[in-house]
């Protein structure tokens, strides 16, 4: 999608629930009591989240809050513990569905109450809830949201099962670049690849400011047959004092085991002719990388207002 740019980032609180079916053998009175307890637990979680969650911070910087039990092992003699207990017995659960990201966010609860249960990755937590809703055996469960339980006719077996009470996920806001290079919204053109194929643009007001106030995302490929090709590209960011915040890879599609690198760093691309460390670094990257693309610059949402 050569005309798509990252325009902004948003961090949203994510609270996971374990969804499934209450066993038919559970007494009705107990079920009613547990549902009442579920509502009380929901209110408690909402109240404590308001107090302890710091939305502007990533999950690993949030304050810890844990309870529950996990069996110690020789490899892990002092394991982390789950923050909450299930609202219903989970002995009937034989299979779990969820998005891969959710497993890592709920590992303490899973280790304490569902250790050894089969797990299956799916495309989204919503899809996980749908699969459990379609399961007539009633022995599967999904890590998903409370609203997914309502939409799929499922029971909430446990809620707030994430390890970190301030659990959050980052979303990118993307937009199409203007078709006209002279548009006030898109005022700068630059290379998509080292060969100069296509055009990319930066916001007209993308000028000045401290590097930490902004982030930029670029992608590039290297000559996999050239020793040190990746190191040469990364050295450019160090040379211009650009602090890298993440590096990710995806298959490039050019050949087996060839990758495209996605690098995010502090700073922003300025308007043409404005200079700046980011602009100079991208010009040098154009000479070193096999191909590259600027994917957008935006304000750093992690900064305190």
UniProtKB/TrEMBL annotation:
InterPro entries: ACT-like_dom_sf, ACT_dom, Preph_deHydtase. Residues 1-176 form the Prephenate dehydratase domain. It comes from the Eukaryota. Gene3D superfamilies: 3.30.70.260, Periplasmic binding protein-like II (3.40.190.10). Its EC number is 4.2.1.51. This is prephenate dehydratase. Pfam families: PDT (PF00800). It is an enzyme of class 4 (lyase). Residues 51-77 are annotated as: Disordered. Keywords: Amino-acid biosynthesis, Aromatic amino acid biosynthesis, Lyase, Phenylalanine biosynthesis. GO terms for molecular function: prephenate dehydratase activity. Residues 218-297 form the ACT domain. One of its GO terms (cellular component) is cytoplasm. It catalyses: prephenate + H(+) = 3-phenylpyruvate + CO2 + H2O. Pathway: Amino-acid biosynthesis; L-phenylalanine biosynthesis; phenylpyruvate from prephenate: step 1/1. One of its GO terms (biological process) is L-phenylalanine biosynthetic process.
């Amino acid at each position: 999608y050569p005309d798509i740019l990252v325009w902004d980032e948003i961090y949203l609180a994510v609270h996971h629930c374990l969804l499934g079916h209450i066993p038919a053998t559970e007494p009705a009175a107990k079920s009613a009591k547990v549902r009442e307890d579920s509502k009380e637990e929901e209110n408690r979680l909402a109240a404590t989240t308001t107090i302890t969650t710091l939305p502007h911070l990533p999950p690993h910087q949030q304050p810890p809050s844990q309870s529950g039990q996990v069996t110690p092992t020789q490899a892990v003699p002092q394991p982390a513990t789950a923050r909450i207990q299930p609202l219903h017995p989970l002995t009937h659960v034989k299979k779990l569905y969820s998005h891969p990201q959710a497993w890592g966010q709920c590992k303490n609860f899973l280790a304490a109450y569902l250790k050894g249960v089969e797990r299956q990755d799916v495309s989204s937590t919503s899809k996980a809830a749908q699969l459990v809703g379609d399961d007539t055996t009633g022995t599967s469960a999904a890590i998903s949201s409370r609203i997914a339980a309502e939409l799929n006719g499922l029971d909430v077996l446990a809620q707030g099962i994430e390890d970190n009470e301030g659990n959050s996920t980052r979303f990118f806001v993307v937009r199409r670049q203007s078709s006209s290079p002279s548009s006030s919204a898109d005022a700068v053109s630059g290379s998509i690849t080292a060969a100069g194929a296509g055009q990319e643009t930066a916001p007209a007001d993308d000028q000045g400011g401290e590097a930490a106030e902004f982030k930029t995302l670029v992608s590039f490929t290297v000559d996999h047959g050239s020793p040190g090709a990746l190191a040469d590209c990364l050295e450019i960011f160090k040379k211009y004092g650009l602090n890298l915040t993440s590096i990710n890879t995806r298959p490039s599609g050019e050949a087996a085991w060839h990758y495209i690198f996605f690098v995010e760093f502090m700073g922003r691309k300025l308007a043409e002719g404005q200079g700046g460390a980011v602009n100079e670094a991208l010009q040098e990257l154009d000479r070193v990388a096999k191909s590259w693309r600027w994917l957008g610059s935006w304000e750093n949402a992690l900064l305190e207002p």
